Q: What sequence folds into this?
C-alpha cells in the first residue's frame, strides 16, 4: 500500500505554519513601515535588523545541545504561544500609547529570541512528521508555502495597514500565532527525553558540542554542502542592495521594474514546486542534478544585468524554478541523512555559519559596489560562487553524493 504524505501530523504542521506565516508577513510589513514613519531613518531599520541577528547567532550555540536532549514539540508549541502573547501585547500598547523606538528595539530582541527557539524546534521536528520516503514531497510543500503566502498577503497587509492600523494588525498576528500553537498541540509524536531526570550541566553541554563537532569532522559531504550554501546565500543577500541601486540609477530602469523580479521568481518557484512535488529524482541522479542547477544558477547571476529586461524576468523565473527544486532535494537529503539526536545542533551550526558568512560577504560586496560598476560586481559575485562550488561540491563529489543518495534509499 502506497504511503500518503498528508497524514494528520503533516496536515497539522502545514496548517499551523500557514497561519503563522500569514501573521508574520502582515506583522513584518506593518512594523517596517511604522519604524520608518516614526524615525524617518533607514539606519534605524538597519539597526533593528542587526539587533535581530544577535539572538539568531548566539542562542542556537547554547540552546541546540539542550534541545537535542528533550522533546521538541513543547518548544514548538510554547514558542508560538509566547510569540502570540508578545505581539498581542505590543498591539494593545500601540493602541493606547505612543511609539517608542527604544522600546521597539527591546521588543525586537525579545521576539527574535523566541523566533530562534521556535525555528530550531521546527527544523528539528519537521522531518519526523514526513512519512518515510516522501521527504522530497514534504519539503516541496514547505518550499512553496511562504512565497505563495507572501504574494497573497502583501496586498492584504497593505490594505489592513491603511484601514485598521498597526496595533490591530499586531493583535491579529498574535491571534494567528496562538491559533498555530493550538493546532500544533494536536500533533502526536513519540519523542525521547534523553535528559530524563538529570540536571543539564555545563559539562554535558560541552560534551554535546564535542559530539556534534566530532560527527561533523568526519562528514566531508555535509561540510561541503553547508559551506557552499552559506557562501551562495551570503553572496545572494549581499548583492540585493546592488540590484536596488542598479534599478534606481540605470537609464530606463525603475523600482517598479525591479519589483517584478519577485513576481517572476514566484511564478518560477510555483511551477518548480509543483514539479518537485510530482517528480522524484532517482537517488543516483540527485548529485548530478544539484550540481547542474548550481552551475546554471551562477551563470544566470553572471549575465543578469547584461541582458534586455524581458530576458531578465525569464532569467529570474528560471532561477526560481531551479532554486526550489534544488533546495527541496537538498533539504530532504540533508535532514534525512543527519541523525535525529544531532539534528538541532547541526541545524544550529548551519544557521550560525550562514549568518556569519552573510554578514562578512555583505560588507565586502557593499564596499565593491562603491568602486565598481554594479553589473561588474554582480558578475564577479556569480563567478566567485561558481568557483567556490567547484572547490567544495565538485571537489568532494563522492562524499556529497552519499548525502544526496540517502533520502533515495528510504
A:
Amino acid at each position: 500500500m502506497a504511503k500518503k504524505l498528508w497524514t494528520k501530523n503533516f496536515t497539522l504542521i502545514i496548517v499551523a505554519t500557514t497561519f503563522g506565516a500569514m501573521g508574520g508577513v502582515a506583522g513584518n510589513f506593518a512594523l517596517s513601515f511604522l519604524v520608518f514613519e516614526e524615525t524617518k531613518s533607514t539606519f534605524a531599520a538597519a539597526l533593528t535588523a542587526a539587533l535581530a541577528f544577535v539572538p539568531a547567532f548566539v542562542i542556537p550555540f547554547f540552546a541546540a545541545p539542550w534541545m537535542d536532549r528533550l522533546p521538541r514539540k513543547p518548544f514548538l508549541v510554547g514558542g508560538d504561544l509566547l510569540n502570540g502573547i508578545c505581539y498581542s501585547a505590543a498591539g494593545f500598547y500601540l493602541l493606547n500609547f505612543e511609539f517608542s523606538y527604544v522600546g521597539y528595539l527591546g521588543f525586537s530582541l525579545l521576539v527574535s529570541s523566541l523566533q530562534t527557539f521556535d525555528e530550531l524546534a521546527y527544523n528539528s521536528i519537521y522531518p519526523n512528521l514526513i512519512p518515510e520516503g516522501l521527504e522530497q514531497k514534504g519539503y516541496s510543500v514547505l518550499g512553496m508555502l511562504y512565497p505563495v503566502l507572501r504574494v497573497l498577503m502583501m496586498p492584504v497587509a497593505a490594505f489592513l495597514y491603511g484601514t485598521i492600523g498597526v496595533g490591530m494588525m499586531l493583535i491579529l498576528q498574535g491571534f494567528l500565532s496562538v491559533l498555530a500553537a493550538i493546532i500544533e498541540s494536536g500533533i502526536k509524536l513519540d519523542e525521547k527525553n534523553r535528559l530524563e531526570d538529570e540536571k543539564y550541566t555545563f559539562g554535558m553541554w560541552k560534551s554535546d558540542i564535542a559530539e556534534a563537532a566530532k560527527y561533523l569532522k568526519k562528514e566531508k559531504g555535509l561540510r561541503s554542502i553547508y559551506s557552499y550554501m552559506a557562501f551562495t546565500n551570503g553572496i545572494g543577500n549581499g548583492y540585493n542592495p546592488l540590484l536596488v541601486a542598479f534599478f534606481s540609477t540605470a537609464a530606463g530602469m525603475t523600482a517598479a521594474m525591479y519589483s517584478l523580479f519577485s513576481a517572476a521568481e514566484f511564478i518560477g518557484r510555483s511551477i518548480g514546486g509543483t514539479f518537485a512535488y510530482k517528480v522524484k529524482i532517482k537517488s543516483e541522479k540527485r548529485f548530478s542534478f544539484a550540481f547542474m542547477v548550481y552551475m546554471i544558477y551562477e551563470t544566470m547571476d553572471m549575465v543578469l544585468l547584461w541582458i534586455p529586461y524581458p530576458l531578465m524576468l525569464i532569467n529570474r523565473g528560471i532561477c526560481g524554478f531551479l532554486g526550489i527544486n534544488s533546495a527541496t532535494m537538498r533539504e530532504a537529503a540533508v535532514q534525512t541523512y543527519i541523525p535525529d539526536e544531532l539534528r538541532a545542533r547541526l541545524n544550529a551550526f548551519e544557521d550560525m555559519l550562514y549568518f556569519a558568512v552573510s554578514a562578512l560577504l555583505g560588507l565586502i560586496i557593499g564596499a565593491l559596489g562603491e568602486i565598481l560598476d554594479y553589473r561588474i560586481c554582480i558578475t564577479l559575485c556569480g563567478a566567485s560562487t561558481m568557483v567556490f562550488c567547484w572547490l567544495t561540491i565538485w571537489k568532494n563529489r563522492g562524499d556529497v553524493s552519499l548525502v544526496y543518495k540517502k533520502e533515495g534509499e528510504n
Summary: Residues 5 and 199 are 38 Å apart (CA to CA). The chain has two domains: 8-187, 217-408. The two ends are 15 Å apart (CA to CA).
